[in-house]
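Reviewer 2 asked us to include a model.

Predict the structure of this chain.
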Amino acid sequence: MGDQMFATTVIPVIGPFLTISRVESDPTRQYLPGAKDMLIFSGVAQVGFFSYWMLYAILDMSEPSNESFQIAPNREYPGLIVTYTFGYD
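Predicted model (structure tokens):
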């Protein structure tokens, strides 16, 4: 997108809207063709996914969870092993 304000664009959920407000408030900046539409679409999609996730998290709190999340060193290679177990039966 030719975004010189990449630092604000990548903030989840609010980043696209922050970038739009920064570009709109600075008279020396302008959008590439289609960039504003892409930012709006991205922001709306992120808000939708976040809302769905929050609804699921709130409704799921009443049930006991079988989920687990673990981080461990990888003994064979440099790095970490990240394991997430979904709690579905």
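The beta strands are 68-73, 80-85. The two ends are 43 Å apart (CA to CA). We have added this to the supplementary material.
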